[in-house]
Amino acid sequence: MPSSGTPRESISAHTRAFKQLARGGRRYALPWLSPGRWRKRLMLVGVTLLAGLAAVVFAIGADLAIEVHRLLYHEAWWATLIVAPAGFAVIVWATRRYFPGTEGSGIPQAIAASLTEDNRIRRQFLSIRVIVAKMVLTFIGLLSGASIGREGPTVQVGASILNLISGKKHGRIAPTRDLIVAGGGAGVAAAFNTPLGGILFAIEELSRYRAFKATSPTLVAVIFAGLISLATLGNYTYFGQTLASVSWPDGLWPVLMCGAAGGLAGGLMTRLLIASYRGLPGRVGQFAADRPVMFAAICGLLTALTGLATGGITWGTGYAESKAALEGVEALPFYFMFAKAFVIWLAFISGIPGGIFAPALAVGAGIGADIALLLPGESSSAILVLGMVSFLAGITQSPITSLVIVMEMTANHQMLLPLMGAAVVSQGFSRSVAPVPLYDALAIGMLKDITRQLRGSSQPPEPPETEMPDPHEAMLEEIMGPPRPDEEDTDADLDAPKQGSEAEMDESAPPPKPDTSS
């Protein structure tokens, strides 16, 4: 029979087992008991609340600017012919002279900052200067009657705020890329009061070519930004509550028609905006490049004239017109989608800061209104919602994000399956027209332009590729080159336990460097 050992040996074995158990428990308990870890968590929560508060201030300020312009139009309609050109010119002058990196939507800048490893480029797109300038210049644009939205700028503002705590100086709170993605998702969640839409936006749009990890920074940012919006603005839905729905199987035709029309229109709009980013053709393009301030003033004048010709329905985000159409208060004219798309393009080519997210919803509502004229037996409000999700999915090529955001904005869960079908059909038609999504093409173009500026290249900027390059090879090697040793992102997650006895005892010990042999 095998010997059971002496009592002393048995006690030693139990002691070793107890020490191993205590060592393992201490290793996993340290992240929750460490003051340094809690300081990082509190800092993350603090900047997330700040991002949500900035989004709320942005929303209130944007509404006030739109209301002031509306009152100005009713008091003296001719004043818009002065305010719009002057506002566009001042914005472009300030943007080009003092605030480069704030022009346009803001979503491409956030995507570009998340793709690059160069901190110089990140500072160009995400900084305190960008936060203040983006908000103020967007307010001036809405006050001038520009057809821009605040949702895209809110993404850049949120990403900039969370990027303030990135890097080693704050003790590696989270990877810089994760903080940028979390800030962008928080901006969408607070701007639309759509928490689930914010998470899906971070996954589908900001992490399209990166492996997304459901890390604590992203979830914390979206949750607390949503709480700030809920506490200040209340539990509201962006477009109110829409209970209309389409019948089955007759509702299949509105889904297919809206999906096809919204996808084709979104794809064509994407190609137009990408081509305009490369530069306008002929003498017009040369004039825009030589005299950008004067060109912006002309775009402002055309925006004012279009608004006057349509009775003021093309100014601003288009929120009021879309909401009135959904509630059945006012009908959208058949030309609304074309006029709204035209003023969106004018704001884009002028170079003023401002997004196209909310105006795209208005264009989609116009598409739905026109299709509803062909289908008198169906609910016009339901078809408007289908048109909104179709055009948004067509121009962003993010069908899941589009259908969830529109469903949350209208509080209409009965339309889940029709919205899903319209979004999927729209993406298929859009990709057949525009292979590259809009925001990604613009982000690549911005990265190439600023990289050549930093390198001092005299070659003219190349247009965005017709096919999306692999982000790891094309972006990090061709555009940026291999990352410098001092810029490698070795940040660790907040709750990841440290390895080794020294790391257990010393909270400030640096984490092990990642294995780059593969």
UniProtKB/TrEMBL annotation:
Keywords: Chloride, Chloride channel, Ion channel, Ion transport, Membrane, Transmembrane, Transmembrane helix, Transport. It is a multi-pass membrane protein. Its main location: membrane. Residues 509-518 have a biased composition (Pro residues). GO terms for molecular function: chloride channel activity. The keyword Ion transport applies. GO terms for cellular component: chloride channel complex. Residues 454-518 are annotated as: Disordered. The chain crosses the membrane at residues 42-64, 76-95, 126-148, 179-203, 215-239, 251-274, 295-320, 332-349, 356-375, 381-406. It is found in: Membrane. It comes from the Bacteria. Pfam families: Voltage_CLC. PANTHER family: CHLORIDE CHANNEL PROTEIN CLC-E (PTHR43427:SF6). This is Chloride channel protein. It comes from Nitrogeniibacter mangrovi.
